[in-house]
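Colleagues,

Please find the record for the two-part complex below.
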Amino acid sequence: MVSMGFAVPDDFERMWADLAPVGRSASSGGYFRQPFASAERELAAWFAEQCAARDLAVESDAFGNVVAWWRPEGSASPGVLTGSHLDSVLDGGAYDGPLGVVSALAAVDELRSRGFVPGRPVGVGVFVEEEGSRFGLACLGSRLATGAISWDQARELRDRDGVALGDVAEGGGPGLLDDVGVFVELHVEQGRDLVDRAAAVGVASGIWPHGRYRFDIAGEANHAGSTRMEDRRDPMLTYAMTALAANKQARVLGERATFGRVEVEPNGTNAVPSRVTAWLDARASTEEGLAELVETVSRQAAERAERDGTAVEVTAESVSDAVLFDPDLAARLAADHAGGDWPVLPTAAGHDAGVLSAAGIPTAMLFVRNPTGVSHSPAEHAEVPDCLAGVHALAETLERLAR
Amino acid sequence: MVSMGFAVPDDFERMWADLAPVGRSASSGGYFRQPFASAERELAAWFAEQCAARDLAVESDAFGNVVAWWRPEGSASPGVLTGSHLDSVLDGGAYDGPLGVVSALAAVDELRSRGFVPGRPVGVGVFVEEEGSRFGLACLGSRLATGAISWDQARELRDRDGVALGDVAEGGGPGLLDDVGVFVELHVEQGRDLVDRAAAVGVASGIWPHGRYRFDIAGEANHAGSTRMEDRRDPMLTYAMTALAANKQARVLGERATFGRVEVEPNGTNAVPSRVTAWLDARASTEEGLAELVETVSRQAAERAERDGTAVEVTAESVSDAVLFDPDLAARLAADHAGGDWPVLPTAAGHDAGVLSAAGIPTAMLFVRNPTGVSHSPAEHAEVPDCLAGVHALAETLERLAR
């Protein structure tokens, strides 16, 4: 357990209350904070105000990624970056992203309140479109900032309404992170490991390799009443079998496979569809395992398509290799705390931290306990004492790294 | 075969060319003519012009259903109604609906061109929202006009954007059809029976009972990466199994079951869905068969839901009983033609003719050959000579009925 005892819990709770109503659906209680749309822009403006109130030096890139530096006179490069993101999945929870940003600001407040002066600059960062909920590519902001994707590639990405990224964002590319020597992202846990270990805070060891794969299944539109079953080429059947096959395969292997998004054309009750497009989210503990999982599901889809008279095309929209966070750094951060060592655990969820790590920046993550383990859902939750323990843990971590 | 030899094929082709561009998608070649939206309203205005050019007396109801009467002096009630609808399914074909309207106008032209003066009024009707593609209830216009549904019930129907019917239509109810003694609807065939029989035109014997059933499947949203497969309550799996079960059941029994429309919440790639809503279109040759089909699919959905930890609710949004068109009328219309009798055949597709028949109006349908049998699709087609044979067959039919 993390020891308590800093003076600024009110500060955390005030910031948390600021964010609570922004982009919240009254019907589901979930959040809709898609990038470059009103709720997320409101949060970005709120963040700018918070940075100004703290006299942080705000730097941003053309994409809207921001790093706000606490750079005391005499502090020496490179800096220590923390932070997370403010966007959400569609109908997501309050904690995924914003907890890391609010905790970063509160950790700076804690360090200042006890008179700590860092020897290295401390930055609070916000990355845009971490979830990929609008343009389909997760960690888009950090990918642009690290050069993992170029603006020429990214600008062509389109949202569901056909709007190109190039029409809502001005550009993007490396530069913003040039002064970053280490990155620590605090995040709500998306699982129940910390519950099982009775710990409020943990340290990440790595991220499973994962990817998004688009299945385009083409059939033939026809009348749902008068077309005999044997005369159909119905892509919905191919899709349905593929979704079941993916689930079964992942279940057997202890991996993850999800079809959470489907689009049907023309999507009319009395018409056999002409086309079903569905997205597979797949994750496995090894890169070989991931490749085999996707290959198996694709093969089963193709076999069923032959039977249905349909055609399947599988496109990898994004694939993230396995991330192993700096093991020495993780061990150093986890050890020697008043309440004992923090547990070190892997995750199957992608994060900007994974992208920065892949770009060669020494990186660590702190997780805060989630009592139900539920995430990407209005039910996502963390108790206030655990959140405050997270703030304190982050402050301790920044202190160690920026001393 | 139907003998040719009337003077107005140009007239038909001109009208057909008028309609060709309205509501057509450049990418798919299909039609988007949803009720109370621009393309369909344009067609309604076009129809009014055509009626004015022919000196037909236009009557309409508050819903927008129209009957344009050719009522020569001395003609005696009740009248003979023909016509069809101008709306389409989403991304539908050119023929389903408009062929019956254009053929009706052309048949009036043919009768007039050869000097026929009807003893009974002849009406050309257009019913609104036959497809139910916007408000979910097929044959909505004819149901209102016959009193099969009341305006108080109908006004609460909502489209996909949540717009209530009461906000786009002014009202609806019986009255318009008071002077109708018999109804004949010409329609493109939605199947290949006429191809197999080498006939350009046929007569309908009846319509299979059919219905639309909404499956609401509730699960729990969660993170697609970090949630173990065994901890999920994923409604997509319940849906997928239900779609396959429906197909299998209908295939075995020679009936029809289609899931052509699906809506997923939140429909994000990296979230297990919280809810899947899907619509079953089911049709069978008997009412008992239809009930059993829907019951079996619902039971299989419920069984799978138990396994998935989800909950399924099935709601019948509309159910149409079997329609047996007036057998004497069908036999009379089919017999004694120059090219031999027209074939008499059933259909599994619903039509306004079924609603009028159920309301006690003696009703018949003529079908025009469809070379591929494909309908509710951009590929729907009929050859011009077959369309002209249909016009001629309709003119002959009107002549017999209105003499």
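Chain A has a mean pLDDT of 94.

Comments are welcome before we finalize the supplementary table.
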